[in-house]
Design goal:
The complex is a heterodimer. Chain A is mainly α. Chain A has a single domain, classed as lambda repressor-like DNA-binding domains (434 Repressor (Amino-terminal Domain)). Chain A has five helices and two strands. The radius of gyration of chain A is 13 Å and the shape is globular. Chain B is mostly helical. Chain B has one domain. Chain B has four helices and no strands. In chain B, helix 1 runs antiparallel to helix 2, helix 2 packs antiparallel against helix 3 and helix 3 runs antiparallel to helix 4. The two termini of chain B are 32 Å apart. At the A-B interface, helix 3 of A face loops of B.
Chain lengths: 79, 167
């Protein structure tokens, strides 16, 4: 996938665990785990807003675009 | 009335389909006896019975496909009873059912052609053959309809998976 979620990096910087973040965000640990492990297909703006609010960061700190070498980075992903 | 889960329409339909499978197997045993008798008569020289034999044999072969289709339908209804709705397994089952219905339509089509070849008189052709062609066309349309439904079902599963992984 061309969009990489760097949630674990920000969580490490802010020294917050996954379960703590899930509790603060009011979403299940399973769902947050899906996001953290780059298994998610899409993220809602409301979810991204909550993450940025709790981790005090910007969306660019969480989401990174890494083009696939195979297809020249023409993958479309929806946020 | 709910469609999914225990005590739903699916669970009641499941019981009905199992009864139909049992009755179809019983009917096929009777048809097998008639088919065997007709084959014996044709071999013994009663050539006027060829068209009847063609019909009965075709119905007997189509019966196997019908039973297979019903068995797959019970699998599908069992999944609905367990509330397993948008699942790849169901897509496979529906695809197999549509292929079996297509197979049935091909058998009836072949029967229709053979019946014309071996028919004893024009009344036979007008009555039985017209019915056979109508059945062939209905089953062909049903098969195409099921394939279209299956494609829509696959798309629905795709949307569901995407939605499940939207955080």
């Amino acid at each position: 996938m061309a969009i990489v979620v760097n949630l674990d990096v920000m969580m490490a910087k802010r020294k917050i665990s996954l379960s703590e973040l899930a509790e603060k965000m009011d979403i299940t640990l399973a769902n947050l785990s899906i996001l953290k492990n780059n298994k998610g297909k899409a993220i809602r703006f409301s979810t991204l807003e909550k993450i940025c609010e709790i981790l005090e960061c910007e969306p660019k700190d969480i989401l990174e675009y890494v083009p696939d070498k195979r297809d020249g980075g023409n993958n479309e992903r929806r946020i | 009335m709910k469609i999914l889960g225990k005590n739903s329409l699916s669970s009641k339909l499941l019981i009905g389909v199992r009864v139909i499978i049992f009755l179809t197997i019983v009917a096929m045993m009777l048809i097998a006896m008639i088919t065997f008798k007709d084959f014996r008569d044709v071999i013994n020289g009663q050539t006027e019975k060829i068209s009847e034999t063609v019909l009965i044999t075709g119905v007997f072969i189509a019966g196997f496909l019908f039973v297979a289709m019903l068995i797959y339908l019970t699998s599908f209804l069992s999944n609905l009873k367990e509330e397993i709705c948008f699942d790849d397994g169901n897509v496979t089952i529906l695809r197999r059912i549509s292929n079996l219905v297509l197979g049935g339509s091909i058998i009836y089509g072949i029967m229709s052609v053979l019946h014309i070849v071996f028919a004893n008189n024009y009344m036979d052709i007008i009555t039985y053959n017209a019915f056979l062609w109508i059945l062939t066309i209905i089953m062909l349309c049903l098969s195409i309809g099921l394939k279209m439904f299956n494609e829509i079902y696959k798309k629905a599963i795709e949307f569901k998976k995407e939605n499940d992984f939207t955080i």
